[in-house]
Queue: 2 jobs
Job 1
Amino acid sequence: MMRAALALARRSLGRTWPNPAVGCVIAKDGHIIARGRTQDGGRPHAEVDALNRAGEAAHGATVYVTLEPCSHFGKSPPCADALVRAGVARVVSAMEDPNPSVNGQGHARLRDAGIAVEVGEGAREAGETCRGSAPIRRSVSCSIQKPASRRRRSSPGRRGRCRYGSCARVPRR
Ligand SMILES: [Zn+2]
């Protein structure tokens, strides 16, 4: 299921500026009932896109998402609230959102509402989906953060976190 969500995120790569490319799959009884991805231009977010497609069926379902659902009011209301309202039972999220205005609060909000939350499945691949596309990676820097040094050139596949505060400056191709 997370694989399907990651595939959706990859499909959105480079098209969701200024937001990261996120994929979301809603499943029930082992079947995918809705898929969503962050739409071109960054809105709606993947979770809301998928919830819109799932409708009532989202109640009691499991949501797989490649990035922590947002918890803050940006240009749209928080996805964490939308998931709570939809009555989903469980959220499996690949990684915490490094954006300082989310940073764990989305997961916390879901847990507070009684939703089971699991974090970490597909984290490495999810990190890659918010890193920017290869040809511009050198200038971008959705650099991989290393504890001691921050080298721009890092081997592909290293576990890292995307800082899309700086991804936001990626020029559109
Ligand atoms: Zn969101």
Note: The two ends are 30 Å apart (CA to CA).
Job 2
Amino acid sequence: MASDELRMPRRAALAGMLLVLFAGQARGGPAFSSSADVRGHPVKPGAPAKAARASEYTLRTGDTLSRVARQLGVSAATLAEANGIADPNRVRAGQVLNVPKVGEPEPAAARPLPPLPSPVVVVGGGSRHLVSEGENLARIATRYGTTVAELARANKLKNPNLIREGSELQVPGPPWLCPVQGPHQFADSWGAPRPGGRRHLGIDVFAVRGTPVVANVSGILEHAEGATAGLAYYLQGDDGYTYYGAHLDALAAARGRVERGARIGTVGSTGNARGTTPHLHFEIKPGGGAPVNPLPSLERWCRG
Ligand SMILES: [Zn+2]
């Protein structure tokens, strides 16, 4: 929404009043419209009771932001934040507000989609490597940040110079750290439909805003930023996996080499998560390629 739509002429802005003064643009139909009733799937168990629905509300003459917020079961601050409203006094009749859902990060798509197939991969504490043509043990060791001796020992190799193309090697590695260091919760939202035919290719780890986000493994950190992702990062792990985190409140670590446990930033709700419950959107991309479901790895390293 362009910010100039939100400005009212000075003469109309009555100091201290939250009343909307402009009439004539309100729609004929009901002002409240919900898209949640066509989602076709139930609210997840354990979701907050107030887990309402992504919807729109068209402001009518006489509406105030605080009253509308109260009616919709969200705070006025949340409503203002979700709509980029800097000054709650400056709203107008006919203005369409996005009403954020409580407890879900992004609006769901209109039609349910089939489950997204994904191999069950638990990442961390070592990994497997398929030997390809021309590779030798030294090169593989370098890629995973280990040594030829460690690889030879882990795979009981008598002659480290003889590895067969197509054979699978165990790559020893340190255990993961949970990327969110503090009380948190997550559920399986892998493959969930998103607007525009997109799928949810990660898991959302919910935590209080400001909870530390750390490097789950050592690697090379890159910062990323975008309208959808907000403040985000890529971590090219020494384990051969690329990790991606989004919607951070702040980025703390400089780009470059980071060790396991380094503080990357803090949990937030930037990008298209603005106005929703703070969370880390987390993805795992083997070899930097197509993402796999991070749930099994998060369950192994973040629970218990
Ligand atoms: Zn997400």
Note: Confidence is low (pLDDT under 50) at residues 1-53.
